[in-house]
Amino acid sequence: MAALHAAAERDRDRGAPAPEHPARNYPPYRSSTPRHPHRPLVEIDHRADPEAVELSGPAFGVTDLTALDADLTRQHPGEPLGERITVTGRVLDRGGRPVRGQLVEIWQANASGRYAHRRDQHPAPLDPNFTGAGRCLTDDEGRYAFTTVKPGAYPWRNHDNAWRPAHIHFSLFGTAFTQRLITQMYFPGDPLFPYDPILGSVTDPAARARLVAAYDHQLSCPERSLGYRWDIVLDGPSATWTEEGH
Asked: Is 39 a catalytic residue?
């Protein structure tokens, strides 16, 4: 990763434009090499295939959500284990204007670093009171908010002694599935940052820093939760880097 970051820095010094997205075939992130697209995307003619219209729906509204969708600590009979946190911010366009009515979804590991998913079998405990998934719609100011627990780091088999830093996955929909963007939010001061090839695939230091939330004491709730602020910019030079190339 150090060599690739140095090469990117040399390109910047020579005036090369900053890449819009991380490389799809970033070698330190091993599984990106065999699974990234090798051929141009195929355009679907919805007139020839009427069912293709499903790719542009459905549209989500306030009636599709409940109060529990945005509070991951209240979705089960008991309290989940771990450090309760509030994560909030605004979804903005390149001009700083709020993006209203945006469906924001999150998913994450529990406080022990394990997902409630059958494919996650590493020996950390599951939490029966934490599923790790939530969603909400942005308000008129483009604001979203979630209450959850801080996820733990977890091992993965990308390389020897590989550990992912604590993170929350974010998914943002426009008005259709085809407009979906996916990214990850990280927590400040994590010692695993230098060892993570997924975060390291973002070779621009400024763009990498934009993936890290800021602790905001004003957002912390007394005797309840710590507060983190993380804004998401959808496009432009200050855009939040996403995992999709569109």
From this structure: no
Please state, in angstroms and rounded to a whole number, the distance separating the CA atoms of residues 111 and 107.
13
Per-residue pLDDT of the chain (246 residues; tens, 9 = 90+): 999 899 888 988 888 887 767 887 888 998 888 877 788 877 766 666 666 655 555 556 666 788 789 999 999 999 999 999 999 999 999 899 999 989 999 999 999 999 999 888 899 999 999 999 999 999 999 999 999 999 999 999 899 999 999 999 999 987 666 678 899 999 999 999 999 999 999 989 999 999 999 999 999 999 999 999 999 999 888 888 787 544
DSSP state of 130: -
Q: Torsions phi, psi of 209, nearest 5?
A: -65, -30
- Please say if 169 is a catalytic residue: yes
Is 46 a residue of the active site? no
26 is catalytic: no
Whether 164 is a known active-site residue: answer yes
**b vs e for 158-176, b when ≥16 Cβ sit within 10 Å of the residue's Cβ?**
beeeeebbbbbbbbbbeee
The C-alpha atoms of residue 49 and residue 23 are separated, in whole angstroms, by 32
Backbone dihedral angles phi then psi of residue 169, each to the nearest 5 degrees: -80, 135
Task: Kindly name the residue from 114, 164, 208, 210 that is annotated as catalytic.
Answer: 164
- Contact status, residue 166 vs residue 151, Cβ threshold 8 Å: yes
Distance CA 186, CA 43 (A): 34
Q: Which of 90, 114, 135, 167 is catalytic?
A: 167
Which residue among 26, 29, 115, 228 is the active-site one? 115
CA 103 remoteness from chain centre: 13
